[in-house]
Amino acid sequence: MLKTIIMDFDGLIVDTEVVWYQIYVEWLREQKDYALTVQEFLTCVGSTPEDLFDKLDRGGIHVDRAQFARDTTARFLEESAFLPAKHGVEDFLRAAKENGLYVSLATSAGLKKPTVHLERLGLMRYFDLLVTAEDVERVKPYPDLFLKTAEKLGCSPAECLVVEDSLNGLTAGRNAGMRVLIVPNDVTRYCAFEGQYRLCGSLADVDVPALIADF
Fold first, then answer.
1. Rounded-to-integer distance, Cα 5 and Cα 123, Å
2. Cβ neighbours of residue 123 closer than 8 Å, sequence gap 6 or more
3. List of long-range contacts for 126-131, beta carbons under 8 Å, 24+ apart
4. What is the C-alpha separation between 171 and 166, in angstroms, rounded?
5. Does 133 have pLDDT greater than 90?
6. What's the rounded mean pLDDT across residues 190-215?
7. Assign residue 177 a region: left if phi > 0, alpha if psi is -120 to 50, beta otherwise?
8. CB-CB neighbours of 109 under 10 Å
9. What is the rounded end-to-end Cα distance, in angstroms, of the chain?
10. Which whole number is the average pLDDT over 57-63?
11. Using only C-alpha atoms, what is the Rg of the chain?
């Protein structure tokens, strides 16, 4: 029986991944004369940039993490400040609550960013719980965020549906023993998704009562 919807944030609720990708591409081109590919960027989508930066380090392209943060954070905040919710997000959240489901956020980001955007967009009222990188030792692709959510809401993994846009999110959900609904964005559509419960082009395509009946 489905009891809980666990939502990612970046790239699923608000399309911040496209903003970040352009920032990464331009910074690495200007600072390191390096042409970052989408496939390389995908290694850190839904997780942290460390895997990407470690790979670049091994290839002789050293990224000073502190400098990168100083150079890019303000630009990201400015360019993402007025992004709308993605198509179908609010209708999906509303339907989940109307059908008696818990709704939680589980993100590899810290608490501040999703809180600011959810309040700005009027979506916070749909969420029963926010679980972030500050609540666990390991973020995606490890299952900790999802397992912590289930624990806090008193649900088993079999009673949870993870909604994700990234390969790291899919891996984390499967590692948690949960079904994963994938809704790619313009960056993560290049991922080779395998093993998901379902893949949809938009949350507007998802019928919540049908999901409940399928569980």
1. 15
2. 13, 85, 89, 90, 93
3. 126/90, 126/93, 126/94, 126/96, 126/97, 127/93, 127/103, 128/102, 128/103, 128/104, 128/153, 129/102, 129/104, 129/105, 129/153, 130/104, 130/105, 131/104, 131/105, 131/106, 131/107
4. 9
5. yes
6. 96
7. left
8. 18
9. 5
10. 93
11. 17
Q: Amino acid identity of 168?
A: N
Largest Cα span, the chain? 53
Measured in residues, the chain has a length of 215
- Tell me the H-state helices in the chain: 16-32, 38-41, 50-58, 65-80, 89-98, 112-120, 144-153, 167-175, 208-214
Q: For residue 58, give both structure tokens.
A: 């091994």
Which DSSP letter does residue 167 get? Answer: H
Place of tokens 């399309």: 15
Q: What is the pLDDT of residues 157-177, one digit of tens each?
A: 999 999 999 999 999 999 999
CA distances from 127 to 81, 131, 143 (A): 21, 11, 20
Residues annotated as catalytic (active site), given as ranges: 8, 10
**Nearest by Cα to 116 from 194, 200, 37, 9:** 9
- Contact criterion met (CB below 8 Å) for 45 and 184: no
* Two structure tokens written together for 101: 């489901």
